[in-house]
Each structure stands twice: as C-alpha cells, then as structure tokens.
Amino acid sequence: MDRGESVFPYRHSELFGFPIYLCYNAVIVSREAVMMKKKSILAIGLIAALLFGLTGEAEAFGWGDIAGKATDKAIGSVLGSSAKKKPVKQSRPKSEKQKKSEREAEKYGVKRIESPDGTNPTAFAGTLDPWPPDELSARPDWFDNRTQPWIMTNARLVAEYESMIQWRAYSEQNGLGTIEPDEIRYTELMDEIHARVRAIERYCDAAEYGDYQSMQSRASMGDYQRAVASNINPLRDYDLELSVPANTLPGYHPERN
Length: 257
Prior knowledge:
The protein has 257 residues and is mainly α. The chain has helices at residues 12-35, 40-59, 64-83, 96-107, 139-144, 154-173, 180-208, 212-219, 222-228. It has 9 helices and no strands. The radius of gyration is 34 Å and the shape is elongated. Residues 3-16, 33-52, 54-61, 81-85 and 111-115 have low confidence and may be disordered.
C-alpha cells in the first residue's frame, strides 16, 4: 500500500457526502414538522441529535466549522418558522348600507348577523334596490352593491323580483339591452323564491305522512329556514301550497315582513 493512499475503504468525499445528505434531510424534516403543527422542540431535538453527532465525525476530516454552521442554520430555521404568526385581520368599517340595514332590523327585534344562512333576515319590505343603470358599463358596479337575496324577508324578495320584471319591460321598450349582471340578478331572485316554496312544501309533505325524521331533516335545511324566517304569505302567489297550518311550521316568524 502506498503512503499516499487512504486507510479507509471509501474516499473522503464519499464518506463526508453521507452526513451532508443527512444534514439536508434533517432540515427538510424539521420544516415539515413545524408546518404540521408539531412541537418545535421535537424538531429541534431531532436536528440536534443528527447534526451534533455528525459534527464530531466531520471534524475528523477538518470540516467541523461547516458542520457546526449547518447545525446552527437548521435550528435557527425551526425557531424562525415556529415564531411566525398569522397577521391579524382588521375589521372593515361598516358602510352606510350596512348601518341602514341594521336600523331596519332593529325595528323587528332582529340583530344583524353577517351570515348567508338567512335565519335572521336584515332586508325588509318597504325598501327596494335601484334599477340597473341604463349604461351597460355601470351595471357591474350596480350588481356588486345589490342586496343579497338570502338576507331578504319573503316580502322583500318578492318585491325585488317583481321590480326586476318591471325593469326588464322598461329595458325592452327603450332598447337598453341586457347583460350578465342584470340577467343574474333576475335569475337569482326567481331561484330563491322557488327554493323557499319547495322547502316549505317538502316539510309539509313529510308532516302529512307523519315522517318525523324527515320533518326534522327538512326543518334544518337552509332553504327552509330562510323561508320561515319571515311571513310566508307573499310566497302564496308563487304556487306555495300548505297542507299543514302555518303556525305549526318550526321556526316560523309571521311578524317579519
């Protein structure tokens, strides 16, 4: 054996390559542990066990400083990742439209809730959204500022739908044309009316057959809860047929219009 040959069966670069590979994977594992909301101390312990053990082996080849820096970097990565906090979401100031809706809701003893479930309607009869603008370019903004149908009482919903019917006749007479925003508005109002009518009738069908399990299931549906959250009389003009007394409908609020 020549004096210049290594006494080890592997070359220095090959032997050192394995610990460096482990160092790299330790960093990856530690970051994954933090992302999975594991305890940061466990990730640090894993890195320390791997890297500090490898540091001694690396020093035998004069690579101690590099291994030490790799250890510090890996632990710092875990600590830095675990210290990150989600930004606090700032609440937006209420618009005049929201404030007006709250005042209307207070008249009926309803607290305004920012929720699409419709169990507490905040848009009542007596107020209507404006018609779509004559200018086509202004209609997208008009649509973005519309009152959502699921927060309307039945009376308001029907009034908004009938108002859109009148506008469509006006638009046709004056050759204004229709585009997606006003078409969607017309359709969503009509669909919501039909959804509420179907929901009440399905509950009535279950009640008529004495199917209590289906009655509970029907009464828990969002369409039904929006329908009975206000007086249902406006829906009678849209083919609503009751086979049970209205005052037996769970959650019914006939005082709201």
